[in-house]
Specification:
Length: about 180
């Protein structure tokens, strides 16, 4: 059976900080309904070429999970003042599966200055797929983590707020259909 709430960790780094936030969000969502956690490192996919890459067997698996969810929380590394290429590749390969989703972000960065880096992803999901973006996104820099755990309680609180508001948005009947 498919999950209403999906958390996708997109970092390919074994010591990822965004993954720690994704795991926390999934733990909280599990108490609120049917939630599933996906890690992109378990679903290797070729770089999108707009052609044969769509035939990779992992593409329909991920597409169906996204399509069947009401709400998706994406945990993303911030690279080069943007979101990582692996996260972008996921969106490129799964495209229309994102139609009309409620989407929230958990961003891990090295420093504080890349705060607005997620906006190009938010814009593309809104414009291409009419997603509703939860503005309560979480942005955490390296100082928020210690010993493979979330160290900053403010970040934990923000993850709780993201989960609460995303569940509320997912419960509203917003589809135009
Ligand atoms: C190629 C690369 C580019 C990066 N670019 C930025 C950046 O523009 N801004 C920033 O704050 N941190 C940057 N970082 C640091 C990462 O955002 C940081 O390591 C973060 O923890 C990555 O998420 P992850 O731990 O979930 O993989 C970069 C790291 C790498 C490897």
């Amino acid at each position: 059976m498919s999950a209403d709430y999906l958390v996708i960790s997109t970092s390919l780094n074994p010591g990822s900080n965004s993954r720690l936030m994704a795991v926390k969000a999934h733990e909280l969502l599990n108490k609120r309904g049917k939630a599933e956690y996906l890690d992109l490192k378990d679903y290797p996919m070729p770089a999108c070429d707009g052609d044969s890459a769509y035939a990779d067997p992992n593409v329909p698996v991920l597409s169906n999970k996204i399509k069947n969810a009401k709400m998706v929380l994406l945990a993303v590394p911030i690279y080069n003042y943007s979101f990582s290429a692996a996260a972008k590749n996921l969106i490129e390969l799964t495209g229309q599966a994102w139609n009309d989703k409620i989407v929230g972000f958990l961003c891990a960065a090295g420093g504080k200055s890349s705060y607005m880096s997620i906006m190009s992803l938010a814009n593309s999901l809104m414009l291409d797929f009419r997603c509703i973006i939860n503005p309560r996104f979480v942005y955490a820099d390296g100082s928020s983590f210690k010993n493979d755990a979330i160290y900053d309680h403010e970040i934990t609180k923000r993850i709780e707020d993201l989960v609460d508001t995303s569940v509320k948005l997912a419960g509203l009947s917003l589809s135009h259909k």
